[in-house]
Write a structure and sequence with these properties.
Layout lengths: L1 E3 L13 E5 L7 H17 L3 E7 L2 H5 L11 H10 L4 E6 L2 H4 L3 H10 L4 E6 L13 H11 L2 E4 L4 E2 L2 E2 L2 H9 L3 H8 L3 E8 L4 H6 L4 E5 L8 E9 L2 E10 L10 E6 L10 E11 L7 H19 L7
Parallel strand pairs: 1-4, 2-3, 2-5, 3-4, 5-6
Antiparallel strand pairs: 7-8, 9-10, 9-14, 10-13, 11-12, 11-14, 12-13
Protein name: Riboflavin biosynthesis protein
Keywords: ATP-binding, FAD, Flavoprotein, FMN, Kinase, Multifunctional enzyme, Nucleotide-binding, Nucleotidyltransferase, Transferase
Pathway: Cofactor biosynthesis; FAD biosynthesis; FAD from FMN: step 1/1; Cofactor biosynthesis; FMN biosynthesis; FMN from riboflavin (ATP route): step 1/1
Length: 314
């Protein structure tokens, strides 16, 4: 997959035209996958490249400010997922207030027509672009008739009687309902980060060494203890991950600590990823290390049972 952040960076041959879909694609969930799959299908039928147009930073970060929800997937992860879906070109445009102020026709003409030589445009059920979000599917179809491209609007994807959306997924993650997220994402929710030095209690005091993760700009599940899969250098390991403030020890800083089962390598400074499978329990203040260790043993035993189930496999 070719990645470009400006139209001028594109080296892919677009002379035959392109099939394009546009969106933020935060999470690259089942609804997004339907859009991208249809875009690739139409591109293949017409012998032209498939293109995903997305934005960085997320438009809400520019239009609303810093007090916006964390991302479901950071920008690097989003590009990884798009590549895994077989997209030919990902155009990640820098989102600015100037871009937001463009009239729909100006965006269509400069980016889609002159920049990408669009012949087919696939959009979601609630899509709109341009100043005042005036560029809905009806307006885009009119512009398509003027500039020579076709527009197809897809219906929403329904899972468990509700529309799949980034907002729904974000709400489930925040509530700790990570098991319910999998059918919406078509994968378990993953947090990535660098392993950093923590308080040193896990192995020394408790007998359960932990990898303390410094997360990227991604949404964290509700504080609690989770059964997880941990990817270390491409290898998967069972894990138990705690998100919280370590109430037994009175810590103030929120931490993400993973005990990787049957693992004893030094991975300080490594980037790892943690896939959240199921919430085991909420954070709890224990009377002391002995009671905490007993609960950790129970957490590990329960996590093994959960992760050994076929439906919990990655």
């Amino acid at each position: 997959m070719e990645i470009a952040r400006e139209l001028q960076e594109i080296t892919l041959d677009l002379s035959r035209g392109t099939c394009v879909t546009i969106g933020n694609f935060d999470g690259v969930h089942q609804g997004h996958r339907k859009l991208i799959g249809r875009t690739r299908q139409k591109a293949a039928l017409r012998g032209m490249p498939s293109v995903v147009v997305t934005f960085c930073p997320h438009p809400l970060r520019v239009l609303v400010g810093p007090h916006t929800p964390p991302l479901i997937t950071d920008y690097d992860k989003k590009l990884d997922l798009l590549e895994g879906l077989g997209v030919d070109l990902a155009l990640m445009l820098r989102f600015t207030r100037e871009l937001a102020a463009l009239e729909p026709e100006d965006f269509v003409r400069t980016v889609l027509v002159e920049g990408l030589n669009v012949r087919e445009l696939v959009v979601g059920y609630d899509f709109s672009l341009g100043k005042g979000r005036k560029g809905n599917a009806e307006v885009l179809a009119q512009l398509g008739a003027r500039y020579g491209f076709e527009v197809e609007q897809l219906d929403p994807v329904i899972v468990n009687d509700a529309v799949v959306s980034s907002t729904r997924i974000r709400d489930l993650i925040r509530a700790g309902e990570v098991w319910e997220v999998r059918p919406l994402l078509d994968r378990f929710y993953v947090v990535r980060g660098k392993v950093v030095h923590g308080m040193g209690r896990g192995g020394r005091l408790l007998g359960f060494p932990t990898a303390n993760i410094e997360p990227r700009d991604e949404l964290l599940p509700m504080p609690g203890v989770y059964a997880t899969w941990v990817n270390v250098d491409g290898a998967l390991h069972r894990g138990v991950t705690s998100i919280g403030h370590n109430p037994t020890f009175g810590d103030e800083r929120l931490s993400v600590e993973t005990h990787i089962l049957d693992f004893d390598r030094d991975i300080y400074g490594w980037d790892i990823s943690v896939a959240f499978v199921q919430r085991l329990r909420e954070p709890k203040r224990f009377s002391g290390p002995e009671e905490l260790v007993a609960h950790i043993r129970h957490d590990v035993s329960l996590a093994r049972q959960i992760l050994d189930a076929p439906e919990a496999r990655l």
